[in-house]
Amino acid sequence: MENKKNDTSQTPEVLLVNDYSDNKIKAVKGLNENGKLQTLSVNKKNLNQLLKVDKQGDFFSSFFTNFFAQLQNPTEFSFFKVPIDKAIGLASLMQKELDMNQNPTHELFLSHQIDPDKMIQAMEAQKSKQDLESNHYNPYKYNIDDIDWESLKDIGLSKEKLEEMDLLEPLLRGYKTKDLVTINLDLGAAYFSLDARIGLRKEQNGLIVMELQGVKKYPNLNTPLQGHSFTKEDKYNLLKTGNMGRVVELIDPLTNQPIPSVVSVDRLTNNLAVTSIEKIEIPQHIKGVDLSREQIDQLKQGKAVLIEDMTSVKGNAFNAEIQYNASKGHIEFLFDNVNKKKRYQPQNTLDNFRGKQIDKQQREALLQGKSVLIDGLIDKKGNPYKGYITYDQVNSKMDFSFNDPNSTEKQAVVNSDNLQSNTQNKSTLKPN
């Protein structure tokens, strides 16, 4: 039984793709020399020709970063990563879902979809790398030869291990690891093991040392940080969004001089991260929108800024707040419940449900808090079913139930045909 489990865990995965031009689910074979996507029908005959993904490896390795960077018109596709032995069945289910709903948000799609933001970040990182290389610019903050590799062996780290984990290059560029790394320390009489985010730091004597940040249960906001005591508002913002939202002067421990800085929480370790405002870089364009000078200045002050009419990877317009995160070292999107309710409501929320159109009378009933009977729905196996839907106005989403949630209040509303039929029956029974 154990061998069987191991075999399953090592099953390779393949890429499925939804091409928006024809709304068909296909399998990815690769790219041609011009960067055009090559696809095949998802069937048993073609499985051996498909592009394979190492399930145990980092999907956004250099190979797939190059793959997406070379892909022409990436916004015309949605990619899905699935086990090869389930590819045919999942592709069939996805196609049925697409045929019923042109813009599905089904769990089947979301559970396998490749994060479009990560895909774009990988492409932009690859482009930056190529630009830097073409300008003969050294992108590295630290020299690999200045690191004391012999000392790092004592905690289970080596140059070879960091290279194998795809961590060495980002460390040399001045970034912390994106994931936790297990550190082992053998003192002979005692053995320690902990998970930490690691980074490099240059000491005053010029020595490059490894900085380990262990995981804390909570961020320490009750102790002053470099001379700054956190206010109630500071604590609230840091715990809610991860960013303090304003610039404060922090005392540099090396020079003892005040430096205007922004503060964020590292969500992976709960440690506090600091960036001086002179090192903050804000892009001039985000998701198809040109930022104004005022917006850029507000972002450099650590504030959250609402950006409207941005374009998603799928080509849809959306609004969201963005803010600089000192831990990540770049802009991040803030999608909280308030934003979802007020700024990110889909236009077709009440137009259809699971491929079934909702008429005007049903929409009005939903907005009044009533339940609506929907018939003619199709499940994954192609079987028809029916049930009741209600509209959650707080979270702007539909809720489904096989039983009428408002039956005790007799508020259930059937579809428009049944309503019309009931009206005709009443008029027929009306006494003269």
From TrEMBL:
* Entry-linked InterPro entries: DUF3945, DUF4099
One Pfam match, given by its short name, reads DUF3945
Give start and end of each DUF3945 domain: 283-336, 355-402
Query: What domain of life does the native source organism fall in?
Result: Bacteria
Secretion signal, residue range per the UniProt entry: none
Q: Give the DUF4099 domain ranges.
A: 142-224
- Protein's UniProt name: DUF3945 domain-containing protein
Q: Which organism is it from?
A: Myroides pelagicus
